[in-house]
Amino acid sequence: MAPTPVSSIKIGHIDDIQELRKTQPMAVPDRYVRGMSERPTQLDSAPQSSSMHVPIIDLSKLVGGNENQSHTELSKLSAACEEWGFFQVVNHGIDLGLLEIIEKLAMEFFALPLEEKQKYPMAPGTVQGYGHAFVFSEDQKLDWCNMLALGVEPYYIRNPKLWPTEPVHFSETLETYSRNIRELCQNLLRFIAMSLRLKQDMFNEMFGVAVQAVRMNYYPPCSRPDLVLGLSPHSDGSALTVLQQGKGNSVGLQILKDNTWVPIQVVPNALVINIGDTMEVLTNGKYKSVEHRAVTHKENDRLSIVTFYAPSYDIELGPLPELVDEKQPCKYRRYNHGEYSRHYITNKLQGKKTLEFAKIQNNISS
Predict the structure, then answer these.
(1) Whole-prediction pTM value?
(2) What SUPFAM superfamilies does the annotation carry (predicted)?
(3) Cβ(122)–Cβ(161) under 8 Å?
(4) Surface-to-core class of residue 315, CB atoms within 10 Å of its CB (0-12 exposed, 13-18 middle, 19+ buried)
(5) Are strands 86-90 and 56-58 parallel, antiparallel or unpaired?
(6) What span, in angstroms and rounded, lies between the C-alpha atoms of 91 and 359?
(7) Distances from the Cα of 176 to the Cαs of 80, 97, 100, 180, 261, in angstroms?
(8) Is 8 inside a domain boundary?
(9) Domain membership flag for residue 338
(10) Sorting pLDDT into bands at 50, 70 and 90, what band is 250?
(11) Are 214 and 178 in contact (CB under 8 A)?
């Protein structure tokens, strides 16, 4: 989430996908049909070799393991951040019952009648409420996804009118869930700092009152999953992103690895973590944000709950001096984080294009 954009383009009526499927279950409107170069293929969804599996980090070995366990797991974390930009974390300390409850409530929200969900509309050019985000023109292709996005912390970024009153206990459960995810992010940032041989609390101290937002994505089944995308390819503007994928959902998240779209086979009870643009800038490109997207399924729906965690809007960011030298010259300029956040939410999702905002000109192609 970020401050309201300076300007926004008013977009005409956008059909709710769930309602569309009720009335025309086989229809895929032209506005959702992707060009040939963007369409997913069967090969994209095929199982990958074990060498292509996203790394798994056991947080309990970092928090309470012996010296050897901690050292081994820290090395795995470093390699995951540098080579993948994604990893799954197990034994993360968040109560599994809480994960089940927030998933249940999210599914109940998306199952509400349309008129109830429309009480929380996402205004054009903003990223809070129910609807479609990152839509800026009438001819822009839309994602096959309904979403509910909410600002969480600091309190001033919230729009209380957009927090659902139904289902019952939705808001209070989201508060508890978000506190737990915030603590997880703070822990992960400590170990990421250690993996870079930095002071353990460097990122947490630098971030100030960190910005936290949540987005719940619901992907209905699609009669022609080969024509659409659930979510366009993009990198995240955050420092860290935490993704909870609903149980029993078909594989939908894919990451771009060595120019190949790799599906993430989620481990039970794990949370998926990825590096955002902000961390790429701070580490001078050592830990890179990675393009990812979501695909759909012909018969199964899918839910994901995504938390974005980023520095305070008022701080200035740039590569850390400790990570700049003759071998790794400075790749990014210094900038205000709020300024970058406004830039991010006022541009459509288009790979890593938004990160060009931060690149020093002679590194624009790096």
Answers:
(1) 0.89
(2) Clavaminate synthase-like
(3) no
(4) middle
(5) parallel
(6) 36
(7) 29, 12, 13, 6, 34
(8) no
(9) yes
(10) low
(11) yes
CA distances, 16 to each of 87, 121, 143, 218, 329 (Å): 33, 12, 11, 11, 48
Tally of structural domains, the chain = 1
Condensed to tens digits (0 to 9), the pLDDT of residues 84-120 reads 999 999 999 999 999 999 999 999 999 999 999 999 9
Helix 96-110 with 170-195: angle, nearest 10 deg: 130
Which CATH number covers residue 297?
A: 2.60.120.330
Residue 1 maps to a domain? no
Cα(122)–Cα(4) distance, integer angstroms? 12
CA atoms within 13 A on the CB side of 111: 10
CA distances to 90, 93, 306 from 56, in Å:
7, 15, 18
Domain that holds residue 84: 36-363
- Residue environment code for 163-179, b if the CB has 16+ CB neighbours within 10 A, otherwise e: bbeebeebeebbeebbe
Residues with Cβ within 8 Å of 74's Cβ and at least 6 positions away in sequence, in order, are 62, 191, 194, 195
Other Cβ atoms less than 10 A from the Cβ of 13: the count is 5
The pairing of beta strand 302-310 with beta strand 253-257: unpaired
Cα separations in angstroms, 117 against 1, 17, 129, 163, 250: 20, 13, 9, 11, 25
Residue 351: its pLDDT value, please? 66
Ramachandran bin of 169, using left for φ above 0, alpha for ψ from -120 to 50, beta for the remaining angles: left
C-alpha 13, offset from chain centre:
26
Residues in the chain: 366
Please name the amino acid found at residue 81.
C
Within a domain: residue 357? yes
Alpha-helical segments (H) within the chain: 17-23, 42-45, 59-64, 67-83, 96-110, 114-117, 170-195, 202-207, 277-282, 337-345
| Average pLDDT of every residue of the chain | 85
What is the DSSP code (8-state) at residue 163? S
